[in-house]
Write a structure and sequence with these properties.
By secondary structure, the chain is an alpha/beta fold. It is built from 15 helices and 9 strands. The protein is 53% helix and 12% strand. The structure holds nicotinamide-adenine-dinucleotide (NAD). The site of nicotinamide-adenine-dinucleotide has 26 residues, from helix 6, strand 7 and helix 8.
């Protein structure tokens, strides 16, 4: 908009050639920035959010703090009223959320919950408006994501899977990584929506591919956490100080996130679940679910995953011993405790 004025001033010799060029550069840079941000989400969008638990609660809060009109639903009345107190509009069913929203995010425990919320009685799909973008961030079976995407298409709506990594701290801080699966042409809209809750929004391919990437990550994470727990326990029984061992491993070839950031031994780091009686964080029962998804995917693709299979069995033992609600680093507690 400033270009004609600048050109006029230069023509009338009211601007030197040097100032003219400097101004022109600034205007072009501003135009460039405007173009790059023009795809981002306008404030005040009508966004629905379903599943207000450890992850979904803070994610919905971040949407509210970005100035969006957020309609919420959860089977827990307490969770709904907490978000209502922060400015969200409480809804009585997923259908009511769909009716009030142009975009919807879901963050639910597993595949069955996602099927119920989308396709059950009073589900999202019973009231969704054509053109609505629905992004499911739960970690579920990729086949269920594909099933939901087809059902959404029948209603002229769009479904994308976008599971996350980063855990509760990243959900609170709005720094989640989203692994997105779905049609390329809808990725920009999904990215603009998810940027209110995350930092790293990556398109992984068609619907279900976000889940595939997520399942691979969590299988790796479980295997490395069990390795970290076994190693730290062996070191302790050999009389090595856990902090010293963690420090050496963190700068050696055995280094991994489970050792250098999220160590499973109480007292090695302050702000991790192991130093808080394994409270908060990522539940052992949820890890067990993700390892089950990885094993189903391995069976479907004839992939040999001997360590992934063993990890599932170990985490199942933890759940059967009543440790399902503890953070998954509690595998150290299970391995190290003598009867
Ligand atoms: P959570 O159990 O804390 O929250 C789930 C919420 O969904 C609860 O508030 C529950 O009441 C609600 N819910 C259950 N059934 C419902 C239904 N039919 N309708 C509406 N609401 C319903 O779980 P979470 O830790 O927030 O995890 C959610 C998803 O995110 C899971 O798929 C998990 O694997 C994934 N995830 C979790 C973490 C983590 O660190 N917690 C990290 C990455 C991914």
């Amino acid at each position: 908009m400033y270009l004609p004025w600048i050109k006029l001033l230069e023509k009338k010799k009211m601007l030197s050639l040097k100032s003219f060029r400097t101004l022109l550069c600034r205007v072009q840079a501003t135009a460039c920035r405007t173009l790059t941000t023009s795809g981002s989400q306008p404030r005040n969008a009508k966004v629905g959010f379903i599943g207000l638990g450890n992850m979904g609660g803070p994610m919905a809060e971040n949407l509210l703090s970005q100035g969006h009109q957020v309609s919420v639903y959860d089977v827990s009345a307490e969770a709904v009223s907490r978000l209502g107190g922060l400015g969200a509009a409480p809804c009585r069913t997923p259908a009511a959320v769909a009716a009030a929203s142009d975009q919807v995010v879901t963050m639910l425990p597993n595949s069955q919950h996602v099927q119920a919320v989308f396709a059950g009685p009073d589900g999202l799909l019973s009231a969704v408006k054509p053109g609505t973008l629905m992004v499911d961030s739960s970690t579920i079976d990729p086949a269920v994501s594909q099933e939901m995407a087809l059902a959404a298409k029948d209603k002229s709506a769009v479904y994308m899977d976008a599971p996350v990594s980063g855990g509760v701290p990243a959900a609170r801080g709005g720094t989640l990584t989203f692994m997105v699966g779905g049609p390329e042409e809808h990725f920009a809209a999904a990215k603009a929506l998810l940027e209110a809750m995350g930092k790293n929004i990556v398109h992984c391919g068609d619907v279900g591919m976000g889940q595939s990437v997520k399942i691979c990550n969590n299988m790796m994470l479980a295997i490395s956490m069990i390795g970290a727990a076994e190693t730290m326990n062996l070191g302790a029984r050999l009389g090595v100080d856990p902090k010293l061992l963690a420090g050496i491993l963190s700068t050696s070839t055995g280094r991994c996130w489970a050792i250098d950031t999220y160590n499973p031994v109480p007292g090695v780091f302050d702000n991790v679940p192991s130093s808080n009686n394994y409270q908060g964080g990522f539940g052992t029962a949820l890890m067990c679910k993700d390892l089950g998804l990885a094993q189903s995917a391995a069976a479907a693709t004839d992939s040999a995953t001997p360590l992934g299979g063993a990890a599932l069995q170990i985490y199942r033992l933890l759940v059967n011993h009543g440790l399902g609600q503890l953070d998954f680093s509690a595998v150290y507690k299970y391995i190290s405790e003598r009867q």
